[in-house]
Design goal:
This protein is an alpha/beta fold and 248 residues long. It is 45% helix and 8% strand. It has one domain: 3-Layer(aba) Sandwich (Rossmann fold). It binds nickel (II) ion (NI).
Length: 248
């Protein structure tokens, strides 16, 4: 069930059988010359939406803007400072906790969000610690849709070292499968792109002029995206079931 398409009595009824919710989180940032700016939000949304067709689970609204300051030298990127993202994740999570949700699972599409979302969890747990409450701790998790063993094995099989770390052929393929109307036919050069560290926006554009890091998204395709989605759904389902198991 998608929260955005539910009415409140349906959410109330859902809470009588489950107190777990999945919140896709991504970014709005450049993804190289042929990758969609919404890639990091589109991918976890596609995985979560497919998951909801297979099991009974509530999917929250996608948090589509993330910590992407290092992409701001490319037009179209919209970024939150870490402090802003931390506040956003905290408020979204605590809203859900207010209603009785106990397990909040952020399905993430953007590496730049990881440190800040985990810091937000620490803030939430700190507030219950300092309040001295003895209630069960909220179960909170950040999971990267691309980090499961099935997705990693398939990416290696399809793309090898050309997977790289930003604007990867795996994420571009999945976003294209979700939105085939937006596939870009662009010739990339050189292939694959350079690899290296991330600092600020001007430095990023100097080091990675077309926006890619270590990747060749010229290998992306809608057909690969369909396979990657299937692998990601299986990985996520397995991990989500562990997350929501009674003893965890
Ligand atoms: Ni990405």
């Amino acid at each position: 069930m998608l929260l955005q398409l539910a009415a409140w009595p349906e959410v109330e009824a859902y809470l009588r059988s489950s107190t777990a919710v999945i919140v896709p989180i991504g970014s709005t940032e450049q993804h190289g010359p042929n990758g969609l700016i919404g890639t990091d939000a589109i991918c976890p949304t596609a995985v979560a939406t497919e998951l909801a067709k297979r099991i009974t689970v509530l999917i929250g609204p996608t948090l589509a803007v993330g910590m992407a300051q290092h992409h701001l030298a490319f037009p179209g990127t919209i970024a939150l400072r870490p402090s802003t993202l931390l506040a956003l994740v905290r408020d979204v999570t605590e809203s859900l906790l207010c209603h009785g949700f106990t397990h909040v699972y952020f399905l993430n599409g953007h590496g730049g969000n990881i440190a800040t979302v985990n810091a937000a969890f620490s803030e939430i747990w700190s507030s219950t610690s300092f309040a001295g409450t003895n209630a069960p701790a909220p179960r909170l998790k950040l999971r990267n849709w691309y980090a499961g063993q099935r997705v990693e094995a398939l990416s290696r099989e399809l793309f090898g070292d050309a997977e790289g770390s930003h604007a990867t052929p795996s994420e571009v393929s999945l976003s294209w499968f979700a939105h085939p109307e937006a596939v870009k036919d662009v010739t990339l050069s050189p292939t694959p792109a350079a690899d290296g560290p991330i600092r600020d926006a001007a430095d990023f554009r100097r080091c990675y002029p077309d926006g890619r890091i270590g990747s060749n998204p010229g290998l992306a395709s809608v057909a690969h995206g369909e396979r990657i989605l299937e692998a990601a759904v299986a990985d996520t389902l397995e991990d989500f079931e562990i997350f929501t198991a009674p003893d965890n």
